[in-house]
Design a protein that fits this description.
There is one protein chain. By secondary structure, the chain is an alpha/beta fold. It is built from twelve helices and five strands. It has a five-stranded mixed sheet, with helices on both faces. The longest helix is centred in the middle third of the chain and has 21 residues. The radius of gyration is 28 Å and the shape is elongated. The N terminus is likely disordered.
C-alpha cells in the first residue's frame, strides 16, 4: 500500500486504509490495548487513539471512508504522456530561466496539453499521488558527453580483464582542496532566527589533497593520499606537480605489493610527457586508463571527498597547520573504515567482481 506523504491516497490505497481502520475498530470491540493494536497494524499510537475516539462516538461507521480526497482529472494515459514531457525538462517547453519544474509551470503545462484546469494545490496532490516529490537536483556539466560515458562503461571490461590478468588492484585517483572557510552545514536554532557562526573571513591559502582508492575482489579496500599546502607566498606552487602524482603511484604500488590499474581524469598534469614516460617504463606493473570528460560520478574517490567535506562542516580552523592536522585525522578515520570506501564504489554504479 502506497501513501502520498502529506497528500491524498490513491483510490486503492484509500480502500486499504479503510480496511486497517475497520480492523482496528474490531479490535476495539474485543478490548485490545492501543499499543498492541498499533504494533499489529504497524501504525502510530496517536493514530490508533484518534480512531478509538471516533469509534466510541460513532462505532464502525465512523471509521469508514468519507469518499475520495480529490478527483483524478487526468486519465492514466494522460499522466503517462505528462510524465514523458516533464522528463524532457522545462527548456523544451519554453522556460529558459532555470531548469527546475515548479508547481506553477506544471499547472501551465497541464493546461496547454490537456486543457484541464488545476490549482497549484491540486498539482501538488497530483504529483504526490504519483510518487513525485520536490528534491535538490544533482548538477551535471552541460559539456558532458553521455554517449562517451556509456562507451567508457562498456569498455570497463577491458580494465577489469587487465586487472585480472595482472592480479592487480584497480585504483581510482582524484584531487580535492579546502581553504580556511569551511563548508556550510546544518545546525539547530530557534525557528525564525538564522544561526550565525564565526569563521575565517580570509581564505588565503589552501590545502590540496590527492587521493586514490584501491579495489580488488576478495581483498581489503585501501585509501592512500598526499597533501599539498599552498600558503599564498610569491613563487609558491599552488597545486600538485607531476612528481607528486608519480610518488603517489609508487606509494600505492609498494603499499599494496601488487600491480595496479590506475584510473584518473584528463587533468593537464596527468597527461605530461614525464608521466607518460614513467608509465611506459613501468608497464610490467602499471596500466593507466582515462575517465571520460566531465564524469566525476564515475570516480569513487569523489565519495571520499564528500565524506571529508561533510566532516569539516562549520569547522573554524585557526590556521592552515590546524586544518592539515584535522584533515589528516579525518582521512585516517576513513582509511580504517573500508566499508565506507566500498560504499563509494557502489554509488558510481560500477561493479568489480572476481573474474
Amino acid at each position: 500500500m502506497r501513501y502520498a506523504q502529506g497528500g491524498g491516497l490513491t483510490p486503492k490505497g484509500q480502500q486499504a486504509r479503510e480496511r486497517v481502520r475497520l480492523e482496528a475498530g474490531a479490535r476495539f470491540g474485543r478490548g485490545e490495548k492501543t499499543a498492541e493494536i498499533a504494533a499489529e497494524l504497524r501504525v502510530g499510537k496517536r493514530q490508533v487513539e484518534k480512531w478509538r475516539r471516533s469509534w466510541r462516538e460513532g462505532g464502525l461507521d465512523a471509521l469508514r471512508s468519507k469518499g475520495p480526497m480529490s478527483v483524478e482529472r487526468l486519465s492514466p494515459r494522460q499522466w503517462e504522456r505528462l510524465e514523458r514531457e516533464l522528463a524532457r525538462g522545462p527548456l523544451a517547453h519554453g522556460w529558459d530561466e532555470g531548469q527546475g519544474w515548479t508547481l506553477v509551470r506544471i499547472k501551465t503545462l497541464i493546461g496547454r496539453m490537456f486543457h484541464v484546469g488545476y490549482t497549484v494545490q491540486g498539482v501538488w496532490k497530483l504529483l504526490r499521488r504519483h510518487g513525485w516529490s520536490a528534491q535538490v537536483p544533482a548538477h551535471r556539466a552541460i559539456e558532458r558527453n553521455d554517449e562517451a560515458v556509456e562507451v567508457w562503461k562498456d569498455g570497463v571490461a577491458a580494465g577489469k580483464s587487465t586487472a585480472a590478468d595482472l592480479d592487480a588492484y584497480i585504483c581510482f585517483e582524484d584531487e580535492a582542496g579546502q581553504g580556511l572557510r569551511p563548508p556550510k552545514g546544518r545546525t539547530w536554532a530557534p525557528r525564525g532566527q538564522t544561526p550565525v557562526m564565526r569563521v575565517r573571513g580570509s581564505n588565503r591559502g589552501r590545502v590540496s589533497v590527492a587521493g586514490v582508492v584501491c579495489f580488488k575482489p576478495g581483498a581489503r579496500t585501501h585509501l592512500f593520499y598526499r597533501l599539498h599546502v599552498w600558503r599564498g607566498r610569491k613563487g609558491e606552487r599552488k597545486s600538485f606537480a607531476w612528481r607528486d602524482y608519480r610518488d603517489l603511484i609508487v606509494l600505492a604500488h609498494h603499499q599494496l605489493g601488487a600491480p595496479i590499474v590506475w584510473v584518473w581524469d584528463n587533468l593537464n598534469v596527468h597527461l605530461t610527457g614525464e608521466l607518460a614516460d614513467f608509465i611506459a617504463e613501468n608497464k610490467e606493473w602499471l596500466r593507466v586508463f582515462q575517465l571520460p570528460s566531465y564524469a566525476p560520478d564515475l570516480n569513487p574517490t569523489e565519495g571520499v571527498w564528500s565524506l571529508l567535506k561533510r566532516s569539516l562542516e562549520n569547522f573554524a580552523a585557526a590556521n592552515l597547520d590546524h586544518l592539515v592536522r584535522v584533515m589528516k585525522r579525518k582521512l585516517k578515520k576513513i582509511q580504517y573504515r573500508p566499508h565506507l570506501l566500498d560504499g563509494c564504489l557502489v554509488e558510481t554504479g560500477l561493479i568489480i567482481e572476481p573474474p
